[in-house]
């Protein structure tokens, strides 16, 4: 704990019953007391629970260390939506969840045209009415979505004219005049990245997009895009269960001053303590995406429980929830990493936000990193056709 992280009133200045309640709240949330203290002060000063003490940089953008992923599709009944793991809620609940996140200080809100398609952007747009100024809003283009009907076709489409029409649609659904951080969702093997970056640069000149990012790109494509239009962030899968970015993408981000947004930071729920060796996800990836994920197939799941055991042990040691331990581990790896966990549950949202206040000593981190590195994960992170869209290099420009 450093002094600068505390506000003017330290926990020890608070009178006894209040201090007891304060410490109990901190423990219940699994959050360091200084963070709760600073959140409380920010509430008093600004009416929001946003901590001015904790910020992470994604290029020139500054955000709260934990963001929120908003990836919804139509649910089983009218008026409902569901995530990609078969959990459904009323649409109003999804809207309220986003508003709750912003109210608690979350600033990075992630979504994409293809989530739904369209419906996630519509929900985010509805939720951010009156809150737009308080968030860094990110969306993505690049899948082959029919921009009229919202029907998802085969393959990808990052042709410049498609990108520009796609962004017009996103702006309308998001009910805003600008997207703070716009990503190419996957590299299009048919379109030179210079043309993609050029189209986004035009949108920046028009004020419709403020910053540019890439999701799951090849390394050379990152360098080439960054030359045309500086990248604010790379958005890749990264968590205790998938550490691929450590060998190449993270060092490149560090070299070029690009932020890193980590998707599936909880390994699709694997790292939260709610999944056991006996968990099954059905046989329809359309219903539950995990049904098609090799590392979550029955045999792999059994083998991979070693990591869950490790997370549980460390969570107990740190007196936090497993999901919080997994998010805190990510935040401790590099100061420019921002996880965007997804959830349908307000209590989980609160836990995830509170993970921003969990810290490790150098010795703890060394020991935890070594233990994580010693666990061998069985099974690929994505179904083969989806995996084939990662790490792709864009074709050379003409
Ligand atoms: N760029 C890309 O290609 C890409 C790909 C996939 C996703 N994304 C983005 O990344 C975001 C997050 O990824 P994700 O949703 O796939 O995976 P995730 O965040 O790793 O996992 C979400 C799962 O974890 C559970 N969970 C969340 N917090 C929890 C907690 N505190 N305790 C227990 N369970 C908890 C959720 O269940 P509950 O609902 O019960 O909380 C849900 O089943 C997405 O929303 C999307 O915005 C981007």
Going by CATH, the architecture would be: Alpha-Beta Barrel
CATH topology: TIM Barrel
- Average pLDDT over all residues: 89
Order of helices and strands: HHEEEEEEHEHEEEHEHEHEHEHHEHHH
Number of strands: 15
User: What proportion strand?
Assistant: 15-25%
Can you tell me the overall shape? globular
Instruction: Kindly provide the radius of gyration, computed on alpha-carbon positions and rounded to a whole number of angstroms.
Output: 21 Å
The structural domain count equals 1
Uncertain parts = 1-52
CATH superfamily: NADP-dependent oxidoreductase domain
Q: Give the neighbour order of strands across the main sheet.
A: 3-7-8-11-12-13-14-15
Number of helices: 13
Amino- and carboxy-terminal Cα gap = 54 Å
Amount of helix: 25-40%
Structural class: alpha/beta
CATH hierarchy class name: Alpha Beta
Largest sheet: 8 strands, parallel
What hetero molecules are bound to the protein chains? NADP nicotinamide-adenine-dinucleotide phosphate
């Amino acid at each position: 704990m450093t002094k600068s992280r505390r506000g003017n009133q330290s926990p020890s200045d608070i009178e006894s019953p209040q201090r007891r309640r304060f410490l109990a709240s901190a423990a219940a949330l699994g959050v360091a007391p200084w963070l709760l203290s600073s959140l409380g002060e920010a509430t008093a000063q600004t009416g929001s629970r946003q901590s001015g003490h904790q910020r992470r940089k994604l290029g020139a953008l500054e955000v709260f260390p934990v963001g929120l992923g908003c990836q919804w599709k139509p649910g089983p009944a009218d008026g409902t939506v569901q995530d990609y793991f078969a959990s459904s809620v009323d649409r109003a609940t999804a809207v309220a969840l986003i508003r709750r996140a912003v109210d608690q200080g979350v600033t990075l809100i992630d979504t994409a045209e293809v989530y739904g398609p369209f419906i996630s952007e519509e929900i985010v747009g509805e939720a951010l009415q009156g809150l737009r100024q308080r968030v860094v809003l990110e969306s993505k283009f690049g899948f082959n979505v029919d921009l009229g009907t919202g029907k998802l076709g085969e393959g990808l489409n990052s042709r410049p004219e498609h990108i520009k029409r796609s962004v017009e649609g996103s702006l309308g659904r998001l009910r805003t005049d600008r997207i703070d951080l716009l990503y190419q969702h996957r590299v299009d093997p048919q379109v030179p990245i210079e043309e993609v970056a050029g189209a986004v640069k035009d949108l920046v000149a028009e004020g419709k997009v403020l910053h540019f990012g890439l999701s799951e790109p090849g390394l050379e494509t990152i360098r080439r895009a960054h030359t045309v239009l500086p990248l604010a962030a790379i958005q890749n899968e990264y968590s205790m269960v998938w550490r691929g970015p450590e060998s190449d993408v993270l060092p490149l981000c560090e070299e070029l001053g690009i932020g890193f947004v980590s998707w599936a930071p909880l390994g699709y729920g694997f790292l939260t303590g709610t999944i056991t060796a006996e968990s099954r996800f059905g046989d329809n990836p359309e219903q539950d995406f995990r049904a098609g994920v090799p590392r979550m197939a029955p045999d792999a799941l059994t083998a991979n429980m070693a990591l869950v055991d490790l997370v549980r042990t460390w969570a107990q040691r740190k007196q936090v929830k497993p999901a919080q331990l997994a998010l805190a581990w990510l935040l401790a790896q590099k100061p420019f990493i921002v996880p965007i966990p997804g959830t349908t549950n307000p209590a989980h949202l609160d836990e995830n936000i509170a993970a921003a206040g969990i810290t490790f000593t150098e010795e703890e981190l060394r020991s935890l990193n070594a233990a994580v590195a010693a666990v061998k994960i069985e099974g690929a992170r994505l179904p083969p056709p989806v995996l084939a869209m990662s790490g792709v290099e864009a074709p050379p420009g003409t």
